[in-house]
Amino acid sequence: MSPRRVLVSALTLLLAPAFVTVAAVPAHAAGGSTKAGNGVTYQCYQHSYEYSVDLPEDTESWSMDVSVEGPDGLEATSDFLYEVPASGRSSFQVCSFDMPGTYTIRASVEAYDSSWEETTFELAPSTFTLRKPRTKTTIKASTTRPRKGQVVRFTVVSKDERPRGYFAHAYADVVLQTFKAGRWVNVKGTKTYTGSTGRAVIKTRFAGSKVRMRARTLADDDTTGSQSAAVTLRR
Fold it and tell me: Using H for helix, E for strand and C for coil, what is the string for the chain?
């Protein structure tokens, strides 16, 4: 090979562009989730929810606005998180005046890196349900085998539902019912209300014939009604 051809080949190698394949680095997929259990509209209390936020790796500071929309589409309550762990539990207020139905949790995040560059994103919405508290009613007769004309004492206990279970339903309207002609009807003169312990004692005189009795807690603006199991009186 001539010296000139060798020189040209060397120059070609030096001047040829270098094509280097570089693997693309995927961007961090910011996101996360929220989750709240169903609840009841009892007075005012803090209803807890879980959250998990997928933050960009270089996040130095972040915050999250939480808005809870009611069944009417309007904001019913809210929460705000700042400089807390990226996953955990928090809460928002729920009250008895909140309407029953499906609620939607919407959360938006602001994250800042070490250069204070801002990244904003929203979490996928989640839903939960609020309903009016239920009641439970029980009844106990002083005797189920009374004599004709004997006065029978019925102890009625009413409980209402709260975020942590059932408790004494104070000053609830209760009434005795008897089964007649295929349906339950109120016994005249037996409507009363429970005391502070959720108990009421109702007296009635046994007429002598077999009869089925039960107690009923009446519904009000804040709770649903309920009835007890039936007891049978016979001679």
Answer: CCHHHHHHHHHHHHHCCCCCCCCCCCCCCCEEEEEECCEECCCEEEEEEEEEEECCCCEEEEEEEEEEECCCCCEEEEEEEECCCCEEEEEEEEECCCCCEEEEEEEEEEEEECCCCEEEEECCCEEEEEECCCEEEEEEECCCCCCCCCEEEEEEEEEEEECCEEEECCCCEEEEEEEECCEEEECCCCCEECCCCCEEEEEEECCCCCEEEEEEECCCCCCCCEECCCEEECC
Share of the chain above pLDDT 90, in %: 86
For residue 79, tell me if it sits in a domain: yes
pLDDT at 162: 96
- Report how far apart the first and last C-alpha atoms of the chain are (Å, whole number): 130
Q: Quote the radius of gyration of the chain (alpha carbons, Å).
A: 35
For the question of whether the overall pTM of this predicted structure is more than 0.85, the answer is: no
Report the CATH number that the domain containing residue 57 is assigned in CATH.
2.60.40.2550
**Separation between Cα atoms, residue 206 and residue 140, nearest integer Å:** 15
In a domain, 227, yes or no: yes
With 90 as the cut, is the pLDDT of residue 30 above it?
A: no
Range of the domain at 140: 135-233
Q: Tell me the average pLDDT of the chain.
A: 90
Q: How many structural domains is the chain composed of?
A: 2
Cα dist. 75→79, 86, 150, 222 in Å?
11, 24, 58, 21
Reported as a single tens digit per residue, the pLDDT across 202-231 is 999 999 999 999 999 999 999 999 999 999
